[in-house]
Amino acid sequence: MHKFVRATRALLPFAFVATLAAPLPAFAQNPCFIGASAEDEPEFARPDDPWIYRGTDIPVDEQWLFGELPNGVRYAVRQNDVPPCQISLRVRIDAGSLHEEDDERGFAHLLEHMVFRESATFGPGEAIPHFQRLGASFGFDTNATTSPTATTYNLNLPNITRATVDDSVRRFAGMVISPILSEENLAQDVPIVLSERREQAGPQRRVAERTTQTFFAGQRLAERSPIGTVETLEGATAEAVQAFHSRWYRPENAVVVLVGDADPRVLASIVEEHFRDWEGEGAFVPAPDFGDPIAPADADPENPVGEVDVIVESGQPRAMTFAIMRPWVEVVDNLEYNRGNLLMQVASSVVNRRLENRARAGGAFLFAGIGREKISRSADATFVTLVPLTEDWETALTDVRSVIADALAEPPAQSEIDQAVSSFDVAFVDMVDQSRIQAGSSLADQIVQAVDIREAVASPETFLEVFRSVAPRFTPEDVFAATQRLFEGDVIRATLMTPSPGEATPVDVRTALSTPVAASALARDDAEAIDFAELPPVGEPAAPVSRRPIGILEMEEVEFPNGVRALLMSRDNEPGRVTVRVRFGAGWRGVEDDEAAIANLGPLALVNSGIGPLDQNDLDRLAATLKVSFDFRIEDGAFVFEGLTRQEDLEEQLYLFAAQLSMPAWDPNPLDRARASSVLAYDSYGNDPNGVLNRDLDWLLKDRDPRFATPTPDQLAEVTAADFRSTWERLLGQGPIEVAVFGDIDRDAAVAALGSTFGALPARDPLPSDVAMREQSFPEAGRMPTTLTHAGDADQAAGVIAWETGGGSDGIVMSRKLDLLAQIFSNRLLDGLRERSGAAYSPFVTSNWPLDTDSGGVLFALVQMEPQLLSAFFDEAESQAQDLATNGPTADELERAAEPARQYLNRAQTGHTFWLNQIQGAAFDRNRLVYLPSIYRDYDEATVEEMRSLAERFLTGPGFRLQILPATNGMAGSATAAEAGR
What contacts 256, CB < 8 A, 6 or more positions away? Predict the structure, then answer.
């Protein structure tokens, strides 16, 4: 699903609340675990010879049970109860777009669609509704992916019983092994795939395809995108697709992974039962040779620059990538191999830190970074990516190469290595802490990924142990040697993307890459780490004036003398995981009409401007040994700081947030960098419908309110450092503060940390009354759509139809019902526009009901499709809205929306972030607490009549219509931008 700036929100997680007054241990009970019986003794499990560990000395993760069937199917199963009552099934077929012949391009992905269409275990179009009725949402829980090397079918099934697991694995096996590949089904799925291809079209795909063709020239990957070509898709026949299926969908190419709330013997027995009779057709066909990157015969051995391409895409920011290419080699995945990888990861981290230092200190590039990747079993490469600040890409390239040249000339300082090692160590320790609550779906995906790259898996404890075993080798000499290995290769390939023709030729790029550069040590930073104890205090620590339970799940509210209020929730079922969320001020309500550009630069620039005496580099060194983070966003009614931490680092996390409010630094460099980034991005918004939606949809749905207009380059250029400081000093100082600390905490220690940070702040200024009461408007509805244009492909368009709803916490219950109505509406559009007509790939409907403001809510439908079909979309959407208002949904339609909601909420309530999302704002708005007890009932007991009544109330009018059409003159525009003074 596409995401649009501020225009949409993810649906609030749902929760099953049996009784909100219940003690937390009640939620740890597991009523769903499927135990093994005497019959559950898998015949082909191999605990003493797990196939994924053959040939390696990596310690076996004994929580996995591996097996191999006589027909060649390999499987891996594991008991996991996160979330409880769920299984995660993956069926991976070792066949992707690289396995296609020239006249089969796109067949692997097309077959993925047809597997869900009809099979031996499902009639036409029955699969998705079936799993929805069991609580599995389409796209999130039931899906499939096609890559160059594999096709993987996914199912996350909630509310499991032995019968539903057995039946679901049986049905999935039937889908994969015996799809109905008829001409009729092909005729339905080809238009859907073509719609998906069209929706993905545009400059980003063109750039991706040209880049792939350059970097993998001479290899199969260069010409085999999973989406295929129009010619091969339109020329597909049922016989040809069946031949592809018969050739590659064989038991020898299959890996089945099943993780869930059941004894591994049960899971293994189920897999064996439903996959043991699978027989391949004909002789086994080995995978084709994917090829190797090869240097030109006349290449300079010291600087083997090969294929180079200059890609011209109007409106796209300049960017350059070059790669040092090596052949992909199937490795012996042993401990020493992984130690070498870890050394190269630390080496990469040191180089990336230097590149970031150079960018911050006035380098010629906005961003640059290096990374080693193994791509589609086709190459092992080190990629270097940079975004020039100006049209002078050559200076930017020289700047980046000079930093790399220095890294290749002399060993790094031990302090640089120590900073990188500390960050990795914190991450690996966190992996161990989180392993007990790792989701089954994530564990299943790890096996699939390991199979894809032909390597083993290891437990988080093994990762940490191996990393720490490398400690004696984290020396300047060894890291220096690892750095040199990163930049050794057989051939160098490169692409330069520019918005204007004539800026460069491939010869220019090749010459620039071949010209020697002088090593520059300007980006080295060997300063020692900073101790938090040396930092200035936020203020005088204060004890709370009150601590009181709020009557829900042992949550607690704490108030300090300065008016700061905190919400605490301690849960020991998520070891080492703490979320801190600080809500303050007025959000977009507090922004003046002429401050949109300043506000938009805030999330990019404010955090990076430093605090007190500390600049960005100081903060990086400070955080190297800690688990802290700093996200900042602007919501309709509040500004939000958020960080993920752990109890031992909680005080430091709180200090960073409180210091940002009390002693922000105003380094102008991050502001300049944020402005440059925003300017570079702006022109790209007009190149396809998706970009125009990101640029203008929120602004239009808020009746062209200038606060929500995406700032133009001219507006951004007008923002001075003084303007930025003046505006943000006001916004940071206004309004109440609520601090939520949820997770694995020591309550008393958390209160003490709050007292020395947020409790020590000065009293806050109240929100001005005109700010607190500021409302949002909705545009005038009508049957004639507002029209915007884009400069992209002529067959791309988008349509939106939106209806005003409301806002405010008094309407929490209604907002939940509207979520269900939107999902019902979305299913109808998906069934009509995608499954039946193939006119669109991913139409959807969403509802947004802001709780912090009393207005601004909207329910809207969005589609991307061919321009000539937009009128049909508007007619279909309005017809469905009117039918829902007149007749309501059917009982089955309601159940297809409600059951995934019930099951998703059952899973979500085990994590503290669910409760945080529900309770946030409750310190100053008691409605968040008053309406919490009914949350499950509001979804579970929703009726057809309630849905009809809501549709009648909100969807009977014509709605606000927006269409985004291709520009006839090739220039994209906003038809009404001038009216907003943009």
Answer: 73, 74, 75, 76, 89, 90, 91, 92, 271, 275
